[in-house]
Amino acid sequence: MASKFIDDKSYKNLEIGAGCGDFGSTYHPKCYLTDGDSDLNSRCKENSVHHFCQGNKLPWGENRFEIVIMCNPYLYGFKDYEDSVPLLNEIIRVLKNNGKLIVLGRATNPYCIGYRINETVNKVNIPNVTLIYNEENINSTHEYSNYVFKRMDNSDTIPDKRYTIQIDKV
Ligand SMILES: C[S@@+](CC[C@H](N)C(=O)[O-])C[C@H]1O[C@@H](n2cnc3c(N)ncnc32)[C@H](O)[C@@H]1O
User: Model's pTM, two decimal places?
Assistant: First the structure.
């Protein structure tokens, strides 16, 4: 489905690593769905990805989105600081003032463990940018009923954590 890059400004939100799913466009429309794997069709029966791009190299300008979503990140995210700091810097770059990053995942997922996300927040140092970190337990089968979350191997998973990073650009 992905096509030539044309930026439609009516899309206010962005999902990174959308994979075979459409979480962002289901719960935070209008949302661009992206993924780093341009060979997604070999894993998914179908996908709704608009653009293939890496989370740490997004083809949009500064201050473009209100919400950026990472849903069950895997093989990218907050596992190692050498990856997570450039990733978060890139997400902050494309978020507007008062924008937010939402990360959903299982507490056991090494790519989105709370203390590593919080440590990454503490390592980012951008003049005039303040980050506010929040972590909550969620019941995703209730809150996101009917949505089937997927692992890399396409098996089902149930996120039990939601992390939010609010971005204030003064
Ligand atoms: C576990 S799947 C999550 C799929 C979907 N978000 C869900 O929850 O059902 C992780 C996705 O992240 C993508 N991914 C891996 N590395 C990436 C990167 N560096 N940038 C963007 N996406 C990446 C993978 O291709 C995969 O589709």
Answer: 0.97
